[in-house]
Amino acid sequence: MGIEIVLKYFPDLTKEQKEQFVLLGDLYKDWNQKINVVSRKDIDELYIRHVLHALGIAKVQQFLSGSEVLDVGTGGGFPGIPLAILFPDTHFTLVDSIGKKIKVVDEVVTGLDLSNVTTINARVETINERFDFIVSRAVAAMPTFTHWVKGKIKKESMHERRNGILYLKGGDLQEELKDYRTAEIFDLTDFFEEAFFETKRVVYLPQKFKGQS
Questions:
Q1: pLDDT digits (tens, 9 = 90+) for 32-50
Q2: The pTM is what?
Q3: Looking at residue 212, what is its pLDDT?
Q4: CA-CA 20 to 30 A from 171: which of 94, 113, 141, 145?
Q5: Minimal CA–CA distance to 74: which of 45, 54, 89?
Q6: Considering its fold, how many domains does the chain have in total?
Q7: Residue 84 lies in a domain
Q8: pLDDT of residue 213
């Protein structure tokens, strides 16, 4: 399954966005043979397990023109690259500490001609800028993750939803989120009907993580 699954849920893509999403699959298949950033099994289901999963964030939050988003532990470029295609007027900074993964991301970004993506090969703790939203896909338990990104969220919000973290997570989150009373959990089955999404969620944490009712 390819671009059709994206069009099923995002039917209003421009011609350029459609072409980019088609090309994305070809680029990953090519680069994954040289540097393995996506599992062999997943590369065959790239559009469901990686592209559409990443775009689950867009079902929760639409990013406005001029906003800035940080993708922490982007790996092979998820969720950042699909989101960057969907929101061409939002700037995405993709960071990962593993150089070979950022190399693949750089090549994919170049191949897709994405002008709204910056990549950084570093640990996120070393980044000094602030962002409207921070996105990621289950790179650490929430307490660890919030520690990593402390002080990296802008105080002033340009969106209706307050600036914060949008985190793709799976499984039972009750224990992990018990200290985060302001967390909101969105089931991706509310947006996508495929079985893959049955345990998948987007967790939204507004900027102040603790001590709020």
A1: 888 878 877 788 899 999 9
A2: 0.95
A3: 36
A4: 94
A5: 54
A6: 1
A7: yes
A8: 31
In 3D space, the residue among 62, 60, 42 whose CA is nearest the CA of residue 51 turns out to be: 42
Indicate if the alpha-carbon torsion angle 105, 109, 110, 115 is positive or negative.
Answer: negative
Let me know if residue 211 belongs to a domain.
Answer: no
The share of the chain scoring above pLDDT 70, in percent, equals 98
Q: CA of 166: how far to CAs of 32, 35, 44, 76, in Å?
A: 27, 28, 26, 18
Query: What is the sign, positive or negative, of the torsion defined by CA atoms of 17, 60, 6, 70?
Result: positive
> What residues make up the domain containing 31?
3-206
4 vs 47: CA distance, rounded Å: 9
92 within domain boundaries: yes
Q: How many CB atoms lie within 10 A of CB 99?
A: 9
Please report, for the domain that includes residue 118, its CATH number: 3.40.50.150
Strand order in the sheet with 133-137: 117-121, 91-96, 68-72, 133-137, 164-170, 200-206, 184-187
Residue 185 has which token pair? 């959990």
Closest alpha carbon to 118 in 68, 54, 79 = 68
pLDDT in tens, 94-152: 999 999 999 999 999 999 999 999 999 999 999 999 999 999 998 888 999 999 999 99
